[in-house]
Amino acid sequence: xxxxxxxxxxxxxxxxxxxxxxxxxxxxxxxxxxxxxxxxxxxxxxxxxxxxxxxxxxxxxxxxxxxxxxxxxxxxxxxxxxxxxxxxxxxxxxxxxxxxxxxxxxxxxxxxxxxxxxxxxxxxxxxxxxxxxxxxxxxxxxxxxxxxxxxxxxxxxxxx
Length: 160
Known about the structure:
By secondary structure, this protein is mostly helical. It is built from five helices and four strands. It is elongated and about 70 Å long.
């Protein structure tokens, strides 16, 4: 039989199982929300638009990781059932993360994403919709690179 992780309560010698605690009160828990974390917080300086998904996504992932909330969008934390003890904490975190992501979207994007009710679903929808443009841009850039010539020889011929 495996033992459950224990937490020592402040100012006492009493130890209790972490599963018995409200996860939203444990600072190392992904369900924990610091007092400074609110709906109006702006996590990333750049607003997602049609051309910057890769950099925006990386910035947002770093910001969510720093807040211990990355697992809500990468699928590690699944939506608990409403009768689960973590459901209310999950719901609060989900709403906060939704708000943080929505605040970082261009206005014309927000209008089509406003009714998505899960941070994971919103993240996946944004990835599907905007990461495709980056592939086309990369393809165009690669084509331009391969067409660069020095005098009448291609760059690879020139350097060979």
